[in-house]
Design a protein that fits this description.
With 240 residues, the chain is α/β, with parallel strands linked by helices. It has helices at residues 18-26, 58-68, 72-80, 192-195, 197-206, 216-230, and strands at 2-6, 31-35, 50-53, 84-88, 98-101, 109-111, 118-122, 129-137, 140-148, 150-154, 159-165, 175-180, 183-186.
Length: 240
């Protein structure tokens, strides 16, 4: 079984690589392949079981898109074939049509991979949106946080999470992310799998692996504490 981690040298903006370190601790028998930006991805020539992309600086999104664009048809094939794909933070934007700059370079559009019918509107000169998050996916309460200059708009016929608290794909959207077959893309960032042990179990089962977690008791206790805080009627989701 192979998990391929794409562009770890910069896809760790908010500590997102902790997701893979935790998954590797949960499943030490799985082979983890870390593919740098100048290397040909493993998925191009063989079927991997999972792909991961983490949050990255905005200027690196174009570099990642340019490296993946020649392989977009292969990506489509793998997604349709049920390969697990997880993208966190602004890595989700790579799967849309384009990123539109609403700041000083208003009108500029940067093409992305075009796999789903949405785009990102970005105002990099503004203060980042920072907030906590609470939502539901397939009976699992999802918690997390986000920090971004951009919001996604368009058609989300395959939403990932139903929002209970915090922000969706955009402030007016009550859904968050994309869930298509076994692809999960979300603006939630940082150690998402550490924060959401129930979802980590779900991913392990998708991979056909035993779902026992590393430090499971501690992870569940921390999750329940965070969940209780966010489910408090007086919870404040906005940061700053």
């Amino acid at each position: 079984m192979i998990v391929e981690v794409l562009y770890p040298e910069f896809g760790n903006l908010f500590g997102d690589m902790a997701n893979m370190r935790y998954l590797q601790a949960c499943a030490p028998d799985i082979e983890f392949v870390y593919t740098g930006i100048r290397s040909t991805p493993r998925f191009v020539n063989e079927r991997v079981d999972m792909l991961y992309l983490g949050s990255m600086p905005e200027r690196k999104q174009v570099m990642a898109m340019e490296q993946l664009k020649p392989h977009v048809q292969r990506l489509k094939e793998l997604i349709e074939d049920g390969v697990v794909v997880l993208a966190t933070g602004n890595a989700m934007e790579l799967f849309g049509q384009y990123i539109s700059d609403l700041g000083d370079n208003c009108g500029n559009k940067t093409e992305m991979l075009g796999l789903f019918p949405f785009h990102a509107d970005r105002k990099i000169q503004e203060i980042r949106h920072n907030s906590m998050f609470l939502g539901d996916f397939d009976g699992i309460a999802m918690v997390g946080c986000r920090s971004q200059f951009s919001f996604c708009r368009g058609e989300f016929t395959h939403p990932f999470i139903q929002v209970r608290g915090g922000c969706g794909n955009s402030p007016e959207d009550k859904t968050e992310g994309i869930h298509y077959k076994n692809l999960f893309a979300t603006y939630l960032l940082g150690p998402l799998l550490v924060l959401n042990p129930q979802f980590t179990k779900y991913l392990l089962r998708l991979l056909g692996h035993d779902d026992t977690l590393a430090f499971e008791q501690q992870a569940m206790e921390a999750y329940q504490l965070r969940l209780s805080q966010l489910e408090d009627p007086n919870a404040n989701f906005h940061i700053g």
